[in-house]
Amino acid sequence: MTSSQAQDLCTACGMCCDGTMFGAVPVEEHERSRLSAIFDLETTDGTTTFRQPCPQNQCHRCQVYDLRPSSCRGYRCLTLKALDAGEIDIDEGARRIAEVLKAREAVRAMMLPGETLTAARLRRKDLAADASRLPAATGFILALTALDLLLDRYVREQDLQMFKAGVS
User: Which Pfam families match (predicted)?
Assistant: First the structure.
């Protein structure tokens, strides 16, 4: 695999920037002043973040690539790490990302107007607790859960997974 192939796969995906994987991105203390001019930063309990989807992600391209936060700069998803290690080839990497993107589009078709995936996940929790929910709500719960399981399998690091392996 070449670095160009990895970059192409990364920009074709963009799920780490568009709110699919994360609701917020942490910002290091030493970056706050520099990034406050670029992002709407929030600090809660001593942790500074900016919300996803990233306002600097336009058409799968970072508009502030050279100035991006260290958390963005250092991020590599599970699929990219597997490519780097030679565990999978570029075709398998592309297949995985396509599968996750297809699942995400199925969820987006069921989301409320203007709803983010973070808000959809909160709505899933509420709907799951509602025994009188409509069948469409059950379909939404299942589709979003399928997306999160695919993200856990192919994209998220273990400490960021929604459904931890071995936990019952």
Answer: CxxCxxCC
Whole domain around residue 10: which residue ranges? 4-160
Chain CA centroid to CA 1, Å: 23
Q: What is the pLDDT of residues 5-31, one digit of tens each?
A: 888 888 889 999 999 998 999 999 999
Does some domain include residue 165?
no
Residue 141 domain-assigned (yes or no): yes
For the stretch 16-69, pLDDT in tens is 999 999 899 999 999 999 999 999 999 999 999 999 999 999 988 899 999 999
Distances (CA, A) of 13 to 21, 80, 136, 150: 11, 11, 28, 14
- Is 168 inside any structural domain? no
In a domain, residue 51? The reply is yes
Tokens 């929790």 belong to residue? 125
